[in-house]
Specification:
about 325 residues; alpha/beta; Rossmann fold; UDP-galactose 4-epimerase, domain 1; 2 domains; 7-stranded parallel sheet; two-stranded parallel ribbon; 13 strands; about 40% helix; globular
Length: about 325
């Protein structure tokens, strides 16, 4: 039986990944500072531990795992990442985790490591035009990410690649583009646009209004969790190291995302534009490289994913109202 270690296994993507790996027959150890919030983990072993702590990290790497998935990070949506209030914590916490993982993973002689990087590493100046953002993998340099979160991700990419060059660590790196789906943060400031929009639409009365940060013309693409996991597993099973984008190339404005969600909810709503954290003006996954190297790219439509997402968020809103 193959063994897998999922770091950040209590988080949104990590918990879904644990479930996927168990279905594929892996023995799975998950590690996080907390258990999954909305469902029970299927991990064979779940360790509550802070991966910033060297002793914890050393104890976790007690065998040469077949596959390690490094998803642990200090992160959140635009309201968290772009406020400027969390920059020091974001850089310090995530960098400390990755330094520990690379060091102790190398000592344990792990067979393969996946690192979840981010589209936030791409230069801000390539994402000023909402209609024509450039997020091709080769455009990452000269580096100019729009946030400290992006700078840390880029640093960690380079660190894992240096461990590959100097120590032979077998790494895979993917740059995620706005992954969404059930069981992700939907309130509290760390929620990303799809969850936040679903919450606002669910809470709004028919004929009411929904607040949108900025003019709502900023563009993004959003990838449903199942497609993300398919891309990750295909990358891990390939001979391609990356970095490679894992994201949808179905680009929409935030206004269009709200209108789509209102249609799913069968509500007529007015958009109210207010000041708020925005990030880059435009971002869309460039999928040429993943299609070339893996012969695959995501196909699940945004509307189908948002329909699933809205149903789940609506249930959470109703539970919160009921005090459950």
């Amino acid at each position: 039986m193959k063994t897998a270690l999922v770091l950040g296994g209590g988080g949104f993507i990590g918990n879904h990944l644990v479930t996927r790996l168990k279905k594929e027959g892996f023995w799975v150890r998950a590690v996080d500072i907390k258990r999954p919030e909305y469902s029970e983990t299927l991990a064979d072993e779940f360790i509550i531990g802070d991966l910033r702590d060297q002793k914890i990290c050393e104890s976790v790497f007690d065998q040469p795992f077949d596959e390690v998935y490094q998803l642990a990070a200090d992160m959140g949506g635009a309201g968290y990442i772009f406020s400027g209030e969390h920059d020091a914590d974001v850089v310090h916490n995530s960098a400390q985790i990755n330094l520990n993982v690379a060091h102790y993973g190398n000592i344990a002689k792990i067979k393969k490591l996946f690192y979840s990087s981010s589209a936030c590493i791409y230069p801000q100046h390539n994402q000023l035009d909402p209609e024509n953002p450039n997020c091709a993998e080769a455009s990452a340099y000269p580096a100019a990410p729009d946030s400290e979160y992006g700078w840390e991700k880029l640093f960690s990419e380079r660190m894992y690649l240096s461990y590959h060059r100097n120590y032979g660590m077998n790494v895979r790196i993917a740059r995620f583009h706005n992954i969404f789906g059930p069981e992700g943060a939907w309130t509290g400031g760390r929620d990303k646009a799809p969850a936040a929009v679903c919450r606002k639409v669910a809470e709004a009365a028919d004929g009411g209004e929904v607040e949108v940060w900025g003019d709502g013309r900023q563009t993004r693409s959003f990838l449903f969790i199942d497609e993300c996991l398919e891309g990750v597993r295909r990358l891990m099973d390939s001979d391609f190291m990356g970095p490679v984008n894992i994201g949808s190339d179905e680009m929409v404005t935030i206004n269009e995302l709200v209108e789509m969600t209102a249609e799913i909810a069968e509500k007529k709503l007015t958009l109210k534009h207010i000041p708020g954290a925005l990030g880059v003006r435009g971002r869309n996954s460039d999928n040429k490289l993943i299609e070339e190297k893996l012969g695959w790219k995501p196909h699940f439509s945004l509307k189908d994913g948002m329909a699933i997402m809205y149903t789940w968020v609506q249930e959470q809103v109703e539970k919160a109202k009921a005090g459950k």
